[in-house]
Structures
1.
Amino acid sequence: MSTHRSEIPEWECLSLVRQERIGRVCLIDHGCPLAFPVNYRLIGNDGDSHIVIRTSPAALIGRYDGPASFEVDHVDLEARTAWSVILRGKLAIVAGGHGLPDPQPLLTDDRHRWMLLQATSITGRRFVGTTSDDGFSVDWGLATG
């Protein structure tokens, strides 16, 4: 059993993130990291990328202003492939009017707080597993950068 892991270039990370609609925003609350699944839209290009989120002002995400990360993954068990992209930066409330695309959250009640994560780092990993006599596994590595 083996798994091949490779780095994904930034331009391809952005292309992969654009294909999905649900990711996890990760922030710190009382000294502990928390991850929340959210609908999102990616705007911008290399060097100027932002994640757009629409949430409730009463939610922890809607009150947050500070360092955060955003993770999007895709796993295809049939093909034995997976990828994971992490964007790191600062999550902040969007003040005033804007022309941001609507992330169309699954929950819509009271979701009128717009948030932006300005990406300062974008990293991605691709995993390709090969079969063996005892099955299949993927070796997820720690993100660096």
Note: The radius of gyration is 16 Å.
2.
Amino acid sequence: MQDLNNKTVVVTGGNSGIGKSIATAFHHHGAKLAIFGRDQQKLNDVAEELQDRVMTVQGDIAKLPDIDKLHQQVGETYGKIDVLVVNAGIADNRKIDMVDEQQFDAIMNVNVKGAYFTVQKAVPFLNDNASIILISSMACHGGWPGTSVYSASKAAVSILAKSFSADLIDRGIRVNAISPGFTDTPIFKDRSIIPKATQLVPLKRFADPEEIAEAAVFLARSTYIVGIDMLIDGGLSTIRPAFRD
């Protein structure tokens, strides 16, 4: 297992939710952090909370010049990148007859284009044998009402873990994905849906974001895991309910 002490870890969307927990977990393992996000105040809050070995870069992952700025500033401050966690993403659930071009483009620009070029533009800045972790979603492992665009975007992210691995394996760079299920983060603004959603999960609870974060740490340290999509959803996608008389 690779030691993360003093390694350089970049986390996009690291200012809240799962991304913040991932950044915090790597920090606890001794890594130097670069956190990228759109909200400067939230970035400042995370940096103040972690206190040391952390830099922040404000920007929008859907804008390629902002991705360039991220990698350039990380390179100037820390040098080469050891772990890149591509977490930034958005969701907006609508059934097929309510989807318009603006919504489609917004989701694809962040979740697919943003993820793709974050990795592509990182390649010159990555150490050999680096780890890349793409945050996908349980939503791409089955059909859910109102998630056609979001699920398609995350399916693209999951397959990129395999395709990027094939492109980068000669440098020993490993790319893997994580597909979280229901996770207790601020994205669930309507808390009333949580009890009903919980009943769908075989474990009968949402994941803590720290559980997703430790999976990211595990993948970063596991030097023989390449091109997988780790599904972390409490059994929702794999365990079927029993028939009742």
Note: The helical segments are 17-28, 40-50, 64-78, 101-122, 148-168, 194-198, 209-221.
3.
Amino acid sequence: MIISPPAISGHCDARFGALREAFTANFSELDEVGAGLCVQIDGMRVVDLWGGHRDAARTQPWTEDTLVNAYSVGKGVVAMLVLALIERGDLALDAPVARTWPEFGANGKHAITLRTLLAHGAGLPAVRKRMPDEALYDWGRLCAALAAQAPYWEPGTAHGYHVNTYGFLAGELVRRATRASVGEALARILTGPAGADFYYGLAPRDHTRVAETATSFPVLREEAQWALAFPPTGDAEHDRMVWHAYFNPTGISGLETVNTAEWRSAVIPSTNGHGTARGVANLYAAFLRGGPPGARWAGDALRREAVSIQADGDDRVTRRASRFGLGFQLAQPSRPIGASPRAFGHFGYGGSLGFADPDAGLAFGYLMNRPGERWNNPRTERLLDALYQCL
């Protein structure tokens, strides 16, 4: 169905007119509801657009400072935060996680390094023990469960996407290294110095500017329901691992929780970061330079290491090919990030994306409130195709 596009606001350099056209066409042709898009080249903001609506009923306009749930785009942000702590000497890349988090060493996990954890190789993509609904907002309870359990595979021998546990695992190391919550550490070390509108654990004053996520997915509580979302493979251990990765505790992927005040106030770093596209682009632009003026996030050597291949090939969770650096998704043939083989960043559920392309000096943020295809979203692909045509 073709509908009239909403008014698009913001700034776009003339050179990137085709990208503005693509952004506009997403509304009229691909049912975009509300979205923000920001591109920086060599630290200069060349595209900063927003449009559409904050709500599914399309009655409230998307404004310059509208926040939206960014889903897994936040994993790249957590990676930057951990790398900044490594650069400062507060964490060590090849030291055992248990050195900072002693309880983590239980059940055969004593030798797992931070490098292995960041590359999704720790074997902890799900909480094994079925957790009650109220555990969703209990940081200590979920971290304790992960620390106590045995890994699903021998750490370091394979990798699998840590869909929702990644943020708790990396975040608990941040918490112990900084003696602050992940949200507080993020503001002090990254988003404050970078002037980036991105948060874990929204303050009540910011709830009024959050866009409603337009999703119709129901809450899934039983194995029979999980099996409809992820059909059984015949390997019961694998199937339960995948189901728990997405649905344990209930609501951890945002199903029927994403639009609640409790979700917005919580710190669930893999999944519930809230921000603007400009904020995401600001973070990647600063990371390309090693940090914003006056702050050092990652030196040249650590940045090179962070975007080099740490895990590649068959993914134990998604059963697709995946490729990771130190917390960043890396470009691969089945899921390119723009046109550059050296691009790095992180997709979010349904098409949102934050990434950097060091060859082009480019930082990119795209956030929206109607998730679409989970793998290669046509709205995102249209934007990336137009962007690289403009370069």
Note: The domain at 68-333 is CATH 3.40.710.10 (Beta-lactamase).
4.
Amino acid sequence: MAASGNYIVESDIDNWETSVAHTEDILPAAVNITTNVLTVVHDIATCTEIKMTSTEELPAPLEDSTVYYAIRIAATQIKLAMTPVLAAAGTAIDLTSIGSGVHTVDIGSGESETKRQEIIDRIEAMIELITKDLFYSKDFILYYNGSGKNRIDLNLNPDILTITEIQISGVVLPESWYAYDKNSIYLDPSNADDDISNLAELLLRLKTKALFPLGMNNIKITGTYGWTSCPSAIKKAAVILCSYENDSTLYTAYENLSSDSLGDHSYNRGDRKFLTGIHEADRLLLPYIRRKIILGSH
């Protein structure tokens, strides 16, 4: 599985330094001793390091776990050379047998998917730290002190998307008793319809002076917050930052920028601790910066 984050995936970045290291299995039938060609699954570049092992015998004269170098013939065809220089020159090892069992081809010179995942995760965490927001939907469970009022301001950042359950001292509050907006939960008498069977509940709610009675951590609220979909500017900023990490010549480092402005916002080098340090990414992120912190959730 390719590396993936909440905003971007590995394929969004087109300048990873080398191919991902991996292994694949081939059968003896994939070895052609007339042409010295191995038919493989992945497209392997010339001079890529290759090691081979087998459940029985490798094609002769290949040796177990010895480093060889690929000569790319086609998208799924390679030959093997003894050195990078010979691989570049197209001088292949002469294969004299196809071997037996299952052969494992270890393309070991590339990056790991773990490394790519670490980069994506680190960049997305930086964006969330700077913007004080989550650009995806995330579950939360929070406990509040009952205020003795009919409204609780959650003061969440990012905004509430859904409230799935409210408990008051362990008792689940019926959904018809409350409504919510992006910041708060409140008693809403208008939720009840005019069915006569709901009249008793409606009267009770109208008389309720404190939907959320006084108490310490007696209100448990479960729901989701964040964004229903990630803005394109956030995705683009994440791509820029990952690409910059792979090649620092692609974008403008903040240290080389004396000042900048965007609409009503302006910032200078003294503000860089709040930004990414990359001019092109900063301009995309600046309109999304909030002031409140993201509260703990799970």
Note: The mean pLDDT is 84.
